[in-house]
Amino acid sequence: MPMEYIYLAGGFVLLAIIFQMMTKFDARIWTSKGLERGDLHALTDVASGLRPDGLTRDQARRLQARGMVRPYGNGKFQATLRGRLTLRVRQRVRQRAA
Predict the structure, then answer these.
(1) Alpha carbons within 13 A on the beta-carbon side of 74
(2) 91 part of a folded domain
(3) What does the alpha-carbon distance between residue 88 and residue 50 come to, in Å, rounded to a whole number?
(4) Is position 93 within any domain?
């Protein structure tokens, strides 16, 4: 019986943490933190496969620091799961703003 109360209390604590995170989460800041203008557009080109070599050295450095791309081959990049998630979140934010 006491273990059930502990599980129940733990569930409530977890829900409170999730609620707190969701109310303070700002998707616009999360997607663009540490990036400059044009970085997410270049990430879109890399993720779609149009231009896997379409990043400048500075863009590649910033996007790699955020874990959004990884290098492969000679000067080519591949979007990571985190990079694709960032693009999806950015798309949703833009849809809600319109």
Answers:
(1) 0
(2) yes
(3) 17
(4) yes
Pair of tokens at residue 49: 């496969």
Let me know if residue 1 belongs to a domain: no
Which amino acid, one-letter code, is at 1? Answer: M
Residue 64, classified by CB atoms within 10 Å of its CB into exposed (0-12), middle (13-18) or buried (19+), is middle
pTM of this structure = 0.68
Domain count, the chain: 1
Domain span at 68:
26-97
Give pLDDT tens digits along the chain (98 positions): 678 888 888 998 999 888 887 777 777 777 777 788 888 888 888 888 888 787 888 988 999 998 999 998 888 899 999 999 989 988 888 887 76
